[in-house]
Amino acid sequence: MAKKKAAKTAEAKKTNETAETTGTAEAAEAAAAEETVSREEYDKLREEFDSQKEQFLRMAAEYDNFRKRTEKEKLQTFDNALATTVEAFLPVADNFALALASGVDDSEEFRKGIEMIKNQLDTAFEKLNDVKFGERGEDFDPLLHDAVSRVDDDELEEDKIANVFQKGYKIGDKIIRHAMVQVVN
After folding, report:
1. In the chain, what are the domain boundaries?
2. Cα gap 8→148, rounded to integer Å
3. Residues 137/160, Cβ–Cβ less than 8 Å
4. Structurally, what CATH architecture does the domain formed by 131-185 represent?
5. What is the pLDDT of residues 125-148, one digit of tens each?
6. Is 161 exposed, middle or buried (0-12, 13-18, 19+ CB in 10 A)?
């Protein structure tokens, strides 16, 4: 009986060892399966993160472009409004210049009054960064000047401005009015 009992105990030990070995193998398999699942999950989450990051960077770039574009449009709107305003006053300035140039037997006081008004207009245009162009002797530039005629002039070289009929005005790079000029042949 003792032999039977010892044999049963040895068999039970063997079964327990086999079960433990099998359990460890199953546990190792379960751990490997869990690691595989978590690796797949990690890869999926990483892909989603990269996608979200790319979307965020694109949105930030779009916002920056939008900000720059609206700033540029604001400046253009201001320049356009300023140019329109100046353009409305140019005929007045031209008429004062013509009145001064006519020199018809005006009284000295009347002439001084017109000169003062002309100077005030010129000062206002300067404050608005309005630049006059089109002087006798300047080079003719078809982008700035409208040539209404050509003339021979011994004093000036070819393609120089001989006479200015109407001054040109610009603000920055924006031409408000081209100068009307006569060009030397």
Report:
1. 131-185
2. 126
3. yes
4. Roll (2.30)
5. 888 888 889 898 899 999 999 999
6. buried
